Amino acid sequence: MGIRKLGYVGLNVTDVDAWTALLGRTLGIGVGHAKAGTDEVVLAELDEFKYRLALYPSTEDSPRELGWIVDTPGELDRLTRRLTGAGFTVADGTAEEKELRGATQLRWFTDPVGYRVELAVGEAKVRLGVERPAGGPGVTGLGHFVLASPKVRELRELYESVLEFKLTDYRAPGLFFFRCNRTHHSIALASAEAPSIHHLEFEHASIDDVGRAYDRAKADDVPISISLGRHMNDKAISFYVRNPSGFHLEIGCGGIEVGDDWVPHDFGRSDEWGHHHADANPFAAPKS
């Protein structure tokens, strides 16, 4: 009970057209549009629900909201009490915000690094299916995100002690993976000098879907920032592209699920194979 899954992410972006081209032409993701005040928001349609990624036109590239789906109104009230007891100020979302999210209830607070974190009850199904690129199902949902920050200790306290996420595994000196359901992780926290989203992960149905997306990325000259590979801890096969806002999108499939008997551990090296970085890896394990 409590938080059930990662629901959506909202981004302020300076180049909506470039994002739309990446989502549609390269990744085969349909986009919709909605109004938020006077702005037109682009909504990425990853599955049958209203959206998983919202792009707001802006003069800066930055995270706007990180949205989690909560089981019930009663659980939302319980988590609100836990947050206020821990010193967080929790506010209700506006009617316009609830309508855009497709939620029946919406509350939000600011996390230790200044990001808006939302807790939503309800998801609006608005389609039976999403148009996919030829050859396979393509994208099937929003998997996880990695949040880099100088305040990992405070963020761990929030997600683990207040919001009741479970630690799945970790890698020294400062990378931690947390889950809120059977999926290996829905969020990871990484030590860094400045706060940022390191990457968002889009789930795909199969390795063939990942491979076709890889071919389209190469054909479209999309910068591949981390090559195809398999992670050591969740066993997912993926590659990463640099998106128009400057951080990574992970295109992956095949991550494992874990149960309540899972024992958190240091999983050592980051990858079984592949995942070669075009630039320096900020989370590389120190050389022995």
Automatic annotation (TrEMBL):
<keyword id="KW-0560">Oxidoreductase</keyword>
<dbReference type="InterPro" id="IPR037523">
    <property type="entry name" value="VOC_core"/>
</dbReference>
<dbReference type="InterPro" id="IPR029068">
    <property type="entry name" value="Glyas_Bleomycin-R_OHBP_Dase"/>
</dbReference>
<dbReference type="InterPro" id="IPR004360">
    <property type="entry name" value="Glyas_Fos-R_dOase_dom"/>
</dbReference>
<comment type="similarity">
    <text>Belongs to the extradiol ring-cleavage dioxygenase family.</text>
</comment>
<protein>
    <submittedName>
        <fullName>VOC family protein</fullName>
    </submittedName>
</protein>
<dbReference type="Pfam" id="PF00903">
    <property type="entry name" value="Glyoxalase"/>
</dbReference>
<feature type="domain" description="VOC">
    <location>
        <begin position="141"/>
        <end position="254"/>
    </location>
</feature>
<keyword id="KW-0408">Iron</keyword>
<keyword id="KW-0479">Metal-binding</keyword>
<dbReference type="InterPro" id="IPR000486">
    <property type="entry name" value="Xdiol_ring_cleave_dOase_1/2"/>
</dbReference>
<feature type="domain" description="VOC">
    <location>
        <begin position="5"/>
        <end position="122"/>
    </location>
</feature>
<keyword id="KW-0058">Aromatic hydrocarbons catabolism</keyword>
<keyword id="KW-0223">Dioxygenase</keyword>
